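Q: What structure does this chain adopt?
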Amino acid sequence: MNPIISRVTQRIIERSKESRQAYLDKISAARSKGPMRGALSCGNLAHGVAACGKDEKNDLKSLTKANIGIVSSYNDMLSAHQPYETYPKQLKAAIAKEGSVAQFVSGVPAMCDGVTQGQPGMELSLLSRDVIAMTTAVGLSHNMFDGALMLGICDKIVPGLLLGSLSFGHLPTIFVPAGPMPSGIPNKQKAAVRQAYAKGDADEEQLLEAEMGSYHSAGTCTFYGTANSNQLVIEMMGLQLPGSSFVPPNGGLRDALTDFAGKQVSRITQQGGSYLPIGEIVNEKSMVNGIVGLIATGGSTNLTMHLVAVAKAAGIIIDWSDMAELSTVIPLLTRIYPNGEADVNHFQQAGGMAILTRELLRGGYLHNDVKTIVGEGLERYTLMPVMKDGQLDWIDAPEKSGDETVLTTIEKPFQTNGGLQLMAGNLGRGVIKTSSLKPEQLIVEAPAVIFESQHDLDDAFQKGELNKDCVVVVRFQGPRAIGMPELHKLTPPLSVLQGQGYKVALVTDGRMSGASGNVPAAIHLTPEAIDGSLLSKVIEGDIIRLNAVTGELSLLVDESILVSREEVKPELDSSRIGMGRELFGAMRSQLSGAEQGACSLFAEG
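A:
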């Protein structure tokens, strides 16, 4: 093992000793009661099997057959989740062939940030993760199940399903992906049209044509944002079948993988003889493996929050210092848009997860002494799924990447570090992703321009008020302020300014996710402005230094001046009322800081 990765892992283990043991004790106590439905009264069980067929009723009465609960985020508005419409029926059939039973237990909400970005609904997006976790828990709380299947892909959905699953950590659980849509117009072309529209050089019809040429089919969006980062991380943690993340939907290989997931979850139940609960798979080492995969591919910064929350649900305590230290030694092995021009289909065609996992294992960057849904160690995850004579099989990956401009080796990384940097200073702590930045963009020291809405920035840009070196501050965007919406509207105008030769950076307590592009952005700033942090005292013209080389984020104003300044008190009613947002006030007030997972699920915050 790389010594830095070993050191960080050991630090996490020591830090988490008490909370992890408490979690393991909890799931051990749950398992000791035997098949869950055995604790139900006759009336309870009768309700639970009332809609089943005669054979299923007999199987579930006997307690000798496993019952698998299916939780799905299906809806036909989200392209990524539309393929899930037929999965429950397919999975039930596969599980029945294995001698077990399955019941569809819960549908969970599934928002699309692509639809809501820049709209009021986006202010519910992060909150939806905790709703999904609770919805998952409500479904599984019927105590009918010996294992579970989680059907979800996109931004908050996989983390929410994982949080809910870990609250039932005694249940064997497998995540079932559906795969990406075919490649549309090149991502670089789409980005160019967006920038042209921001400058007024393209009209709305041209912009819509480009967007619909990119997002055009069932399946996950193909750029490497949060949705595809989720898939990669979950597979690297051993919670999905090897090589299953980026197989396209609606094909023979995808169908075979889905069937196998149903069979495999039956096999790892107590009745199946190879009991392997999710709470044992997700441990300190598998969490580090997930972080390594994220960093080695330049994945979404949203996961810096989600993984903290997920770890805590399993009794594990990690923070941004851990991630930043890991990033110093993890090589960047992929170039996938927005960190390159390729999309996830090109990554898959180049060798995908099998080659990536093999390279990271070969370099000593992954823990191999871990449990996965297919057994001990990650060797199975260096194989590729294929169809042979109509049957699913796994074979050795090619010796070399099919395209080394997309997927490279540990000897020839695109960068010697992963590009995830902790930013810290008197303005607080945040993160920056440097994998798509040029060296000259890493240090910006310039006057602050202040906004309290991403929409206001666009007005200033159109008026030419930002044609200068500046650090754009967009504050009161954090979790407790307005639910931490993604600030996608900032990227096109800031990219235009940067292209015109201005030194530009962004500082915000909001988030930008995996699609933040090539503008230096210190995001997720904690503590957030609504809590009276120094960010709430910055005024127009103050000099801010953003140094992504050293990790410094400082307001260069004398302390004696800052002491006498009053914090700004924003008007937030317009972001808390309407579009259902008034229903989430209590949850919003309970959210922890971004570095603590921006989570409302843990009483201690």
